[in-house]
Write a structure and sequence with these properties.
This protein has about 325 residues and is an all-alpha fold. About 75% of the residues lie in helices and about 0% in strands. The protein has one domain: Farnesyl Diphosphate Synthase. Strand 1 and strand 2 form a beta hairpin.
Amino acid sequence: MITLKEISEPVREHIRIFEGKFRDSMKSSVPLLDQITRYIIKRKGKQMRPMFVFLSAGITGTINESTYRAASMIELLHTATLVHDDVVDDSNIRRGFFSLNALWKNKIAVLVGDYLLSRGLLLSVDNEDFRLLQIVSGAVREMSEGELLQIEKARRLDIKEEIYFEIIRKKTASLIASCCACGASSAGAGEEAISKMKLIGENTGIAFQIKDDLFDYEMNNSTGKPNGTDIKDRKMTLPLIHLLNNSGLAEKRWVINTVKNHNTDPEKIASLLEKINQSGGISYSRNKMTGYRQKALDLLKDFPESTYRTSMEQLILFTTERKT
């Protein structure tokens, strides 16, 4: 499979420059903040979000200073939401590193999240990038709504398929959609092209999240068994929803009871995972994932051929073929 390094080739230099600008955008006169933001930068992920921004800009126009600001804004606001998420979830690990709340406690983590959020907002306001601010602020609103909707529904375990897709559209896909829309807007594209790029990002994001959900049903290298982590966390993902939709009343009761009351019992989880496999929930979810991925690829064909478009196609494929 093609690597992210190969996919990023047309925008690699832009991402290198962006990393320096992103570091500068986080600087503060408060030594504690500088220490924490240096720690955040060290833990950077795969840089997929900046890649979506720069490739979208290259597809629809010319990469410029506004594009760098768009990528920085998204990273600042997204990092802020991750810091706050770790506090809300009481999570001590993020991407294999200690989370901020694990090292500096909740109060400081929340304040750092607020600081990053303000830096992202000021970056756009100071440079009058109001269209970018509108796009990214919309994504932050949707991510918050998606998270709250998931919490509300998880209490009752009554998520229907359309609600599941609404949750992941808001929680995950809205961010990738905003990357693509911001990239196009920063490059001077018209509203039609911005809307189309946003839809490409949204479909990609939905496929990305279904892939994430499917990881839970794959074999763990150390145990030789599926992880079942989402079931332990009482998360209603697509394979489980498919099983419920295709179960009789008695089996449905057993499934809900297992998720609600026996989600830490290895034998019960193993039985539930087996039922999900037998119901065709895995293959059903894979087909849905492939369908959303194809929608994104089909929309992308409306743009002229270029090295940027080719890399975007490869990036969309990567989101559903990745191993982690």
